[in-house]
Amino acid sequence: MANGGETHLTFGRAAVVVTQREPDVVVRISGEVDVSNADLLEDAIQQWLRTNPGDLILECDGLGFIDSTGLSLTVRLHNDLTARGHRLVLAGLAPAVRRPFEVTNLIEMLDVREATP
Q1: Neighbour-count burial of 22, counting CB atoms closer than 10 A to its CB (0-12 exposed, 13-18 middle, 19+ buried)
Q2: Whole-model pTM?
Q3: Digit-coded pLDDT (tens) for 49-93
């Protein structure tokens, strides 16, 4: 993926736009992340990270739902990135999506920010 180029993909009820912002990968997610698509999404993200090492920024302002499978995905991504000396940033969690992160105390472990401009 060229710097600044975008890749658009759909994984069931989730749509993603991936942008390389040197040296980071930005994934804008909309729709839903659940058991039906989390594995496909994770495979794609891991592939982008292998070819574009850096921090991963998940822009979630278009995300309407996340289940426990999606929460587990964020933990695995966080752990993988931390082991590589990088970080996972979650940006723009809507209240309904933020709530599962709060209830599970993941909000304390993860780098959660307001929506990116």
Answers
A1: exposed
A2: 0.88
A3: 888 778 999 999 999 999 999 999 999 999 999 999 999 999 999
Neighbours of 49 (CB within 10 A): 19
Residue written as tokens 């940033």? 89
Q: Are 9 and 40 in contact (CB under 8 A)?
A: no
Please give the average per-residue pLDDT across 32-46, as a whole number: 93
Query: In sequence order, what DSSP letters do the residues of 1-44 get, joined into one string?
Result: --TT-EEEEEETTEEEEEEEETTEEEEEEEEEESTTTHHHHHHH
Which two structure tokens, joined as six digits, stand for 30?
Answer: 């909309």
Q: Is 34 exposed, middle or buried (0-12, 13-18, 19+ CB in 10 A)?
A: middle
pLDDT of residue 67: 96
Per-domain residue ranges of the chain: 9-94
CATH node for 9-94: 3.30.750.24
